[in-house]
Amino acid sequence: MQIMGFTLGTASIIIIVFIIMMLLSQFRERKFRLWYSIITMTFMLFVTYIFVSIELPANANYSILLVGGLVGIMLGLAIAHNIKIKIADDGSLLTKGSFLSVGIWIFIILVKFYGQNIFNQWQWNPNFLLSLFLILSISTMISRNIYLYIRYKNKKRELEFKSI
Questions:
Q1: Nearest of 29, 140, 123 to residue 78 by alpha carbon
Q2: What are residue 53's phi and psi, to 5 degrees?
Q3: In terms of residue numbers, what domain contains 45?
Q4: Most buried pick, 61, 104, 120, 150, via CB within 10 A?
Q5: Cβ contacts of residue 158 below 8 Å, gap of 6+?
Q6: Among 56, 144, 58, residue whose Cα is nearest residue 96
Q7: 97 domain-assigned
Q8: Which tens digits make up the pLDDT trace of 123-149?
């Protein structure tokens, strides 16, 4: 299939549909399911690990990546701290997804796949910077979800205590 001068194969179309579905799912408010969140984050962490370990040379400065992960954790905690906790009638947590974090993560993956030619034309090796942003975005998502879940459990415990 050819769209605006680009030839897309079946795999590319499937990836694009998956990305669009993943991004659109971040807008709607839904019940927070801990196991679904763990499975999703584990998959995203695995993909991030593959990209970071393959792309970076052995002599790379991993302390900068560690700092990027710590900054992402702090950013996720700050974002989750400012989110209002909504509890449904059945006692479950209602939340929206993290569109910005997921969007950045997907954008970095796409740049790694399709942007290498542009960076090569500039004679610039973007692997370290892209890996840093991958780690930053995934650590933001993980810490946000964990902190939201902890806040939810505390609020639920408070509501149960008040009802007694």
A1: 140
A2: -70, -30
A3: 30-163
A4: 104
A5: none
A6: 144
A7: yes
A8: 666 777 778 888 888 898 889 889 988
